[in-house]
Amino acid sequence: MPFSSKLALLGATALVALCPLTPATAQDAQPWADTTLSPDARADLVVKAMTQAEKIQLVFGYFSTDLADHDFVHPADGQPAAAGYIAGIARLGIPAQSETDAGVGVATQRTPTPRLRTSLPAGIATAATWDTSLAYAGGAMIGNEARLSGFNVQLAGGVNLMRDPRNGRNFEYGGEDPLLAGLMVGNEIKGIQSNHIISTVKHFAFNNQETNRNFIDARIDDAAARESDLLAFQMAIETGQPGSVMCSYNRINGDYACENNWLLNQVLKLDWGYNGYVMSDWGATHSTVPAANAGLDQQSGWPFDKSPYFKDALGEAVDNGHVSEARFDDMAHRILRSMFANGLFDQPIDGDQSATIDYAGHAQVTQQDAEGGIVLLKNTGILPLARSARTILIVGGHADKGVLSGGGSSQVYPVGGLAVPDTYPAHFPGPIAYDPSSPMQGIAARTQAMVTYDDGSDPQVTASLAKKADVVIVFATRWEAESVDVTTLNLPDNQDALIDAVTAANTRTVVVLETGGPVAMPWLAKAGAVLEAWYPGTSGGEAIARVLTGEVDPSGHLPVTFAASLDQLPRPKLDGDPAVQGGHPHVDYDIEGAAVGYKWFDKKGFKPLFPFGYGLSYTTFAYDGLTAAADGPSVKVTFVLKNTGSMAGKAVAQVYVAPVAGGWEAPKRLGAFTKLDLAPSQSQSVSLDVDPRLLATFDSASKTWRIAAGDYKVMLGTSATDMVQTATLHLDGATLDVRGQLSR
Ligand code: BGC
């Protein structure tokens, strides 16, 4: 080292020795450490101090799992078998972004040594609770496990509407209605982020089927889009303020979601004023310049894409002006802004603290969620299980060992380990994972009856056993998973024939469904009772047992319509099948437009197997005194709800709204809802506001929501087809801006 350098070094050392870095000087060096500044101001200060290489580092994410077929080893500091990692920048004090899937808990990519964590029930099950406080509590719980597992970004918040019951990922989402899905998923996101970590909302947008998901072009008109799936995203974002939005694999109206100017720049960032960052789904980036200019802020999950578009190529594009410096800075700014806003700088994660996770407490959280989401679809009076039963035969579904979960990247490996040895080939989206919470054990612990198990593999043997039992409980399962759609509404593996044989042998048969979405029930007329338990999570067996025995009232209501047959759907055949459509697969969402789910059934006059919003209880409720009055651009609805039965229970009150003159995508919409816990004879007054966007139609030319002057019906219902009270009111008409606010 030349002398002068040595001197300089000495001088520097001396300076440090004389003036140790006080917080004030640290702040001078890194002025963004000042927590009194806004996240935007802090992000601006960091961006100013960054080199081009550092910005590139921030906007380019890696998969954090080894991939032998890509010759890829996960980043050294990333968590193994995890979703993603972006190294921090020590010079600037920027923390690493450590990403984990997903919406039901801390997932692990397939590996022999997964992290074992608490799993919530499937997203569709949480939506079936219609209870925003349970959604928040579940989010807070899994966010805590993410944080204590060393993650500060959770890839949760799936809000794609159920446009097709065959979508293999319906179980990850919040159902078919924009208000219900938006509020439930938004509250989950809020709960996750209460842990000072970032959550996404995903998959933006119109990734509503898995068939050909990487190429399919979802075609939909702007207004219909804004009144349906986009409204669900808009409401989830308003409620949860997610730090990131994950753009999806598919194309929308021709352009890939992650390079779709309309979707990302216009709708999300400009119209809704979203100030977080857009990350791509893993393998959903297709370009450098179009993607960056259309609004993608971060490429995720290298090496899933064809090329590292947001690495050197992005630097070159900035150098030669194809992507402006301002846009490049905006990409970095948005990521940093979300990191500041969500506490990633100020409350940093502290490595793997998973030994401190309160699994016992978390088991209660997931159990309450599961109990709230189990839907009683039919009951001839055989539930709750009679105390006088002497023999109970449990059939199928591995109910002696556990409950099923959904497959793919969201897979949480359950605390306690898999209950049933995995039979799926060693590739994605497996394994077929059963959570170790046995419904049979839960039932046996709550009855004097002798409880026996038969696996149901021979329907004739099972039927003869069923004849001799006082009660039979059949557990029917359908495994659904990311990347594959189901092809029929029927239960797989001959289970319909099994249930047919058992219900023929014994009418005191309860069918418990563990499915990720709607199924057909050809045996329905013969069953004594039917429960939809979805994928109920790591305490699911206990939850099912408590509902069956009446320890807890079933209070779930369907967040989706159960079609009577595929013929009733907008697309009786799935679109986008490459075998049918050739090289340019597309799905035509203009067929139903915004008339998704029950709206489509209403419009067409189809009678579903079970309607949206449906769910029975062991107690009875009375609704009375409905009033509806205009309140600015909104409508205020009041009524009184009473538990008229002899058991405590929870009612889901649903308010539907409809213009008397018509003119919407469908006759009516869900306008508001609430869930109330009522003791026997207890009554409660309720007041709900209808979001004005649910009274309006979207006008694409002026980008406004327009409420037409006229008479409106307000209906209080227990499902989309069962109305108990109706009121009519007149609205003067109003125009709201694109965010649903009164225009000035
Ligand atoms: C899924 C995302 C997930 C990502 C990372 C993708 O295949 O679509 O939902 O977050 O992988 O695992």
Query: Could you estimate the helical fraction of the residues in percent?
Result: 25-40%
Number of strands: 32
Query: What is the 3D form?
Result: globular
Gyration radius (Cα, Å) is: 27 Å
User: What strand line-up does the widest sheet have?
Assistant: 11-8-6-5-3-2-1-12
Based on helices, strands and strand pairing, what is the structural class?
alpha/beta
Oligomeric description of these chains: single chain
List cofactors, ions and other ligands.
beta-D-glucopyranose
| Helix segment tally | 20
Instruction: Give the overall pLDDT as a whole number.
Output: 95
Distance between the termini: 68 Å
Main beta sheet strand tally, sense and closure: 8 strands, mixed
Question: Can you put this structure into words, describing what you see?
Answer:
The structure is a single chain. With 744 residues, this protein is an alpha/beta fold. It is 27% helix and 22% strand. It contains 20 helices and 32 strands. An 8-stranded mixed beta sheet has the order 11-8-6-5-3-2-1-12. A hairpin with a 2-residue loop joins strand 30 (710-719) and strand 31. The longest helix is centred in the first third of the chain and has 17 residues, at 132-148. The protein starts with a helix and ends in an 8-residue tail after the last strand. The structure holds beta-D-glucopyranose (BGC).
Secondary structure blueprint with pairings:
Layout: H1 3-18, H2 23-29, H3 39-49, H4 52-59, E1 60-64, E2 82-86, E3 97-101, E4 116-117, H5 123-129, H6 132-148, E5 153-155, H7 178-193, E6 198-204, E7 217-219, H8 222-226, H9 229-240, E8 244-247, E9 251-252, E10 255-256, H10 261-271, E11 277-280, H11 289-294, E12 299-302, H12 312-319, H13 325-341, H14 359-373, E13 375-379, E14 391-395, E15 403-404, E16 413-414, E17 434-435, H15 439-444, E18 450-454, H16 459-468, E19 471-477, H17 495-505, E20 509-514, E21 529-532, H18 540-549, H19 578-581, E22 586-588, H20 598-604, E23 621-631, E24 634-643, E25 649-659, E26 669-678, E27 683-690, E28 697-699, E29 704-707, E30 710-719, E31 722-731, E32 734-736
Parallel strand pairs: 1-12, 3-5, 4-16, 5-6, 6-8, 7-9, 7-22, 8-11, 14-18, 14-19, 19-20, 20-21
Antiparallel strand pairs: 1-2, 2-3, 9-10, 13-21, 15-17, 23-24, 24-27, 25-26, 25-30, 28-29, 29-32, 30-31
Helix pairs in contact: 3-13, 4-13, 5-14, 6-7, 6-14, 7-9, 14-18, 16-17
Bound molecules: beta-D-glucopyranose (BGC).
